[in-house]
């Protein structure tokens, strides 16, 4: 089971909150589907930081073998969020496949 944790959402302008929450809920559903047979409870953590004119968005998920962290910067928080999730998706799938491959290898021995 994957739980979503949004941090520092107050640093983003109020008019972006609904769209950000909607995108994050969709991604939470995707990761719940991906990890439905995973035996560890996972936390998808999304952190927002607004400094000067840039929004810095970071997302992390702690798998069994390692913690995956992705950070993106952009002037638009929605673009940064989408970019973070696309990068995180690639990294998580790669790590999940490696863990699965390792599990299958150990199971055969």
Characterize this entry briefly:
The protein is an alpha+beta fold.
Question: CA-to-CA gap between the ends?
Answer: 29 Å
- What's the mean pLDDT score? 94
Largest sheet: 4 strands, mixed
Q: How many DSSP helices?
A: 2
Structural class, from secondary structure content? alpha+beta
Number of strands: 4
**In what order do the strands lie side by side in the largest sheet?**
1-2-3-4
Rg from C-alpha positions? 15 Å
| Coarse morphology | elongated
Q: How many domains in all?
A: 1
Helix content: 40-55%
> Which architecture would the CATH scheme give at its second level?
2-Layer Sandwich
Please provide the ordered H/E string of secondary-structure elements.
EHEEEH
- Kindly report the name of the CATH homologous superfamily: Ribosome hibernation promotion factor-like
Outline the low-pLDDT stretches: none
Query: How is the CATH topology named?
Result: Double Stranded RNA Binding Domain
CATH class category: Alpha Beta
Tell me the layout of helices and strands.
Elements: E1 2-7, H1 17-34, E2 42-51, E3 54-62, E4 67-74, H2 77-108
Parallel strand pairs: 1-2
Antiparallel strand pairs: 2-3, 3-4
Describe the structure.
The chain starts with a strand and ends with a helix. The mean pLDDT is 94. Strand 3 and strand 4 form a beta hairpin. The chain is α+β, with helices and mostly antiparallel strands. A 4-stranded mixed β-sheet has the order 1-2-3-4, with helices on one face. 46% of the residues lie in helices and 30% in strands. The protein is built from 2 helices and 4 strands; from the N terminus they run E-H-E-E-E-H. It has one domain: Double Stranded RNA Binding Domain (2-Layer Sandwich). Helix 1 runs parallel beside helix 2.
């Amino acid at each position: 089971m994957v739980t979503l944790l949004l941090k520092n959402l107050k640093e983003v302008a109020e008019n972006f909150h609904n769209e950000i929450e909607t995108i994050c809920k969709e991604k939470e559903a995707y990761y719940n589907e991906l990890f439905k047979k995973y035996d560890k409870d996972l936390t998808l953590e999304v952190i927002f930081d607004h400094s000067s004119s840039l929004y810095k968005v970071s997302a992390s998920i702690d798998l069994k073998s390692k913690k995956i962290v992705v950070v993106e910067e952009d002037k638009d928080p929605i673009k940064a969020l989408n970019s973070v999730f696309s990068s995180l998706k690639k990294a998580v799938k790669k790590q999940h496949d490696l863990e699965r491959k390792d599990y299958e290898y150990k199971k055969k021995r």
